[in-house]
Write a structure and sequence with these properties.
Distance between the termini: 13 Å
Subcellular location: Cell membrane
Number of helices: 6
Structural class: mainly alpha
InterPro entries: DoxX (IPR032808), DoxX-like_oxidoreductase (IPR051907)
Helix content: 55-70%
Shape: globular
Largest sheet: none
Keywords: Cell membrane, Membrane, Transmembrane, Transmembrane helix
Order of helices and strands: HHHHHH
Protein name: DoxX family protein
Main location: membrane
Length: 140
């Protein structure tokens, strides 16, 4: 099969997914904590609120995921955060995610859940700590 040759790049594709997800996820935290890139419509939440705790998890956890450091436990925590966010804030609005605005929460939940099982892929501090070195196989 022609696509079987792509298997050797799986660790890099996983790293790209992890990094892109983390960067976008961190922006949710910076928005709630610092009003960047724009403040939330409801204003900046108090740090000691559910939204404030979520913002800290989004920024701090997102940074750890970006770096690929403690990826599995952090991803487990963030998957749980996104599940709680969906069922607490989105699901009560409407049955369908496209109507309740919960699409992103569901996708984040499952991407983080995937990282719990796969680990960070290539280009991670977890891999560096374990001495892993990913090298694509020579095409042939």
């Amino acid at each position: 099969m022609p696509f079987d040759k792509l298997d050797r790049y799986t660790p890099y594709a996983l790293a790209a997914l992890r990094i892109a997800t983390a960067i976008i996820f961190m922006l949710h935290g910076t928005q709630k904590l610092f009003g960047f890139p724009a403040p939330p419509q409801s204003g900046l939440p108090p740090l000691a609120s559910l939204f404030g705790v979520g913002a800290v998890l989004e920024l701090g956890g997102g940074l750890l995921i970006l770096l690929g450091l403690f990826t599995r436990p952090v991803a487990f925590l963030l998957a749980g955060e996104m599940a709680v966010a969906y069922w607490t804030f989105h699901a009560p609005r409407a049955l369908y995610p496209v109507l309740n605005g919960g699409d992103a929460a569901i996708l984040y939940c499952f991407v983080f859940f995937l990282l719990v099982f796969t680990g960070p892929g290539a280009l991670s501090l977890d891999g560096l700590r374990k001495g892993e070195r990913y090298r694509p196989a020579i095409a042939g």
